[in-house]
Amino acid sequence: MAEVVVHTQLSMRMRIMALMSYLGVLVFVPLVMNRDDQYVNFHARQGLVIWIIGIVAIFVLYLPGLGKLLFSFLAMMVMIYSFIGIISVLFTKAWKLPIIYDLSTKL
Q: Is residue 6 part of a domain?
């Protein structure tokens, strides 16, 4: 398992790119623009997994019966993980989010 390199001095551009990783469809901006920065790439990969879970939640809504309940659970999960990710970026940390990090390493 590779260690995440955390820079002591992050530029404002890197912070904004990492922050955009947790703002829904904006995850594609850091994924496309920052291939070589490990800090931004770490957050972008986790943000992509969170975004995919959000898309799955929308499709789950159409399931009869438990669809609404499962949607509520997944939507809450997306909001909580996005909030934790944003806090991680604001503190210039690279927190490995449970479940999300494991899935992001497989991308």
A: no
In a domain, 5, yes or no: no
Integer Cα distance of 72 and 11 in angstroms: 37
* CA proximity to 84, closest of 95, 74, 75: 95
The answer to whether residue 52 is domain-embedded is: yes
Q: Mean pLDDT, 10 residues at a time, over the chain (107 residues)?
A: 54 92 95 88 96 96 93 96 96 92 92
DSSP-assigned letter for residue 59: H
pTM above 0.85?
A: yes
Residue 20 belongs to some domain of the structure: yes
